[in-house]
Structure formats: structure tokens, C-alpha cells
Amino acid sequence: MSLPPLYDTFLIREPLRDDPFAVTHNPSDIPTLIEVYSKSITHFTERNRERAVERLQYELALLYIREQKWKKALRFLLAVYEGSSWRREGWWNLLGLLREQVRDVARVCGHADVVLRAEWEGLCDCECVFETGRV
Fold it and tell me: The whole model's pTM is what?
């Protein structure tokens, strides 16, 4: 006897709703998502929820990359990369992936200074480059 494909949502959510960030979205959903993420960033900023804000800024940057709005994507990527809790808490693997995205988007935007700082930090393994803003 097989069990029906039902989930007890009282104890555990359905698989697709477990991680809403893992679900792919239609291109028509992106303006709505951008608006929701922007409002969520404001909401969590008012409540000093730094990690939630960083996660939302990162997700918003990825949406802008998908839309090929490079300058907006770079603004949010730099906000996460420069002064994030990831840097202060030593999450170097995440910062390495983020640094590559910052470098690639900055290259598309033509920001040679950001590309140079990202490359320099990657070569030196010194996290001080983006903290001071100087190379």
C-alpha cells in the first residue's frame, strides 16, 4: 500500500515552499520581485536585521544581473561585499564567490578601479582593500 503524495504542512512545509529563493521565476515576475525585495530591505533595515538585509541585497543584485541592469547590480553587490557581516565573521568562501561576481559586473560597467580592487584582494587574500576603499 503506497501513501498518497500529501504533506503534513503543520510539521513541515511542502518541498517547493521550503526555500523560496530556490524557485525559478518567470521574467514577468522580476519587476514585482524587485519591488518586494526593495520593501523587504527597508523593513529589515529598520529592525537592524543585518544578515537578512545582506541576503536580500544579494538576491536583488542577482535579479538585476538577470535583467542586465549592470550598474544597479553593482551597487547592491558592492553594498554586500564592502561592509558585510560575511567579511567581519570570516566567511571567505562566500566572499570569494561574491568577489568574482563584483569583478565581472564591474568589468561590464567599466569600473576599472573596482575590478582592480577585487583582483588585488583576490591575489593578496587581504580583506583590507574594500574596507578602506583604497588600493
Answer: 0.71
